[in-house]
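Sample A.
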Amino acid sequence: MSRNIFDVPDPLPDNEVFTELLGSADVRIERIVSTGQATPPGQWYDQREDEWVVLIQGEAVLQYESGEKHRMSAGDHILLPARCRHRVVYTSTQPPCIWMAVFGNLQ
């Protein structure tokens, strides 16, 4: 397992890369590497747990079910409460997006 958050596969794969960094019964921490992927049209994330996510590198756009969009740049973070229907509509390819996501009962 990588010990540096910026170590990404070379060459970059066609699919997002999800790496669980830490996990327990109460919380899970993942690193996600995105290279232009987006949530398929008509699909939504609707998670049972809260998700706090920070974009370490790159740019991305999240969209909520209401249609509102949230643009993110490196360093931006957001808390997505459980059952907050959202999707990813854009992720940069150069540089690739590196996300850190924390899942659990966070509120």
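Sample B, a different protein:
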Amino acid sequence: MIIRRFKENDAEKVSQMIIRTERITNSKDYSEEWINALEKRAQPSHILERTAWTHFYVVEENDTIIGCGAIGPYWDSETESSLFSIFVLPEYQGKGIGRKIIETLEQDEYFLRAKRVEVPASITAANFYRKLGYDYKNGVDRPDKEQIYRLEKFR
């Protein structure tokens, strides 16, 4: 298993991996309508857009992309950053790969320069991030109108 920076020709595989993961893993916490809306935002063109302003990483095993994650500035801030698009294929979940992605992102320059890092967490993933030191933003411990938790970590 290797973790490396995203390359343009990864976009289709990353898109397919995210969509598959959402359909299997997130379907227990979200409606079909919500999953369909997310799928539209996981298209290769959107992935390429995101990579233009974030540092996007992929996890690869035997030429298969099994996970991904990105970090970028929080609304162009120099002192705040955000984590994005953190996914691991269902059959690889629970094996420490998500933790390795977070560890990689937390060594990235966007993390190291930040005083605060936010992650928009799905209902499905909120406890995962909390185990890694991210806590509810402003103490709000329920999903927002977008059905996500806002979590943050201060450095």
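Observation for Sample B: The longest strand covers residues 64-73.
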